[in-house]
Amino acid sequence: MAGEKPKFDKRVLQELLREFEIAQQLPMAPTILEVGLSCFGTFGIYADYLRDGWLSRAWYISDGEHLTFVTYWAEISYAALQELDEAHLMTESIRF
Fold first, then answer.
1. What's the pLDDT band for 38 if we cut at 50, 70, 90?
2. 73: closest CA among 62, 57, 54, 52?
3. Domain range for residue 88?
């Protein structure tokens, strides 16, 4: 029906993602985030990968049955990410 959100099974998405990771020799993503649905019934999935001290975020599009790799967003060293997190925590603790 028009206007209904497509239904999807998270286990199916996880399985599709793992198959892609194996094919691309990526480590399993510890962090997977889903984002909003589009008018075409698809939605985005972000997965974070840590490999050789670098963190990259990959973006995928899915319709609940298929998964398509779109792009990598950025790579940042894990040490730099920790420094950013610590700076963010210090900034948050200073705010009233």
1. low
2. 57
3. 10-94
